[in-house]
Hints:
By secondary structure, this protein is mainly beta. It has one domain (about 1-15, about 30-325): Porin (Beta Barrel), CATH 2.40.160. The protein has helices at about 1-20, 120-125, 135, and strands at about 30-45, 50-65, 70-80, 90-100, 105-115, 145-155, 155-165, 180-190, 190-200, 210-220, 225-235, 245-255, 260-270, 280-290, 295-305, 315-325. It has a 16-stranded antiparallel beta barrel. A hairpin with a 7-residue loop joins strand 15 (about 295-305) and strand 16. About 25% of the residues are buried.
Amino acid sequence: MKTKFILAGILTCIGFTTQAQEVKQEEPKGKAIVQVFGNFNAGFSQEKTNIGFDLERSYLGYEYKFNNGLSVKGVMDIGKSSDVSDYQRIAYIKNAMVSWKKGNLTLNGGLISTTQFNFQEKFWGYRYVMKSFQDLYKFGNSADLGISVSYKFADWVSADAIIVNGEGYKKLQKGNGFNYGLGATLTPVKGFQIRLYGGFNDSGEKGKESIVNMAGFVGYKSKRFTIGAEYNHMLNASNKKGHDQFGYSVFGSVNVANHTDIYARFDDLYSNDDWNIAKDERTAILGAQFKAGKYVKIAPNFRMSMPKADGAKKAYSAYINCYFGF
C-alpha cells in the first residue's frame, strides 16, 4: 500500500511539472503493425538430428496517434504455447493500450509492454533471432495489464515506474498481489548507456514467496558497432523461498557493410545450490544479418548449448532466421 502512495505522489509531481511545457502538435496518423518471425533450423547431437522449418511468432496490430499526445495501440500475438502441441499456435492479445505523452512525460495504461527488460531487448536488436536473456529464461513477462510512467529529467537521465498484475499477458489475474518496478536509464556520454531496474512481484498468496528481480546493464552503440553486458538476479523463483537464479549476457555486433552485420552473444544461467541444475546452462551464438530491402532481414547463425548437469552433452544447431515486418 505504501508503494502505491509513493508512485501516486511521483505521478502528481511530474504532472504539475509538465503543465507549463508546450507540446508540438502533430497531424493524426495511423499505421499497421505486421511482424513475422520464422526460421529453418537443424539441431545436432550424439543421439539424433532434428531439422525443419518453424514459424515462431507473428504480431498483427494497429497503432493510431492523435494530435494531442494521445495514442492507442492493439497487437495480436500468434505463437507457441507450452500448454499444447508445438505444432499448434495460440493467439493472444499482446497489447491493448492507451498512451499519452506531454513534454518529457509518458503515461501508458492497459495491456502494456513491461519495462523489466524492454530496454535490453531493443539494445540487443536481434529479437527475431533470439530473445533477450530475461525473456529467454523467464525472469519476467514482456507485457502485462497495468500502468506505467516515464519521465526524462535531462538529456542524460530518465526514470520509469510500473504497476502491473504480475501474471503476464497470457494469464488472468489470480491473486491480490501486484508487480511493482522502478528503473533508471543514464547516458553519461553519447552512445554509452546504463540501465538499472528493481522489481517486486507480490505473490498475494499464503505459502508463496514474493519474487524480487534486480538487473543492471551497460552498453555502447555507435554507427559501426554495438556492445552490451547485463547481469540479472531473481530471488524466490517460481515463488519458492531460497530458489534464486542468476545470470549474465554479453553481446556485440559490427556493421561490416551497408546491409550486413555480424553479431555474437554469450549467456550464462546458474542457480544457488544448483537447485535448477537440470536447466542451468551456458549458450553461445555467432551469426550474420543481411537486410534484403526495407522490410526483410535474413540471419544465418550457429548456436552451442552447454548444460551444467553432470553427464549432459553439448548441443549444436544451425539456424537461418527470417524477419518480415513494418
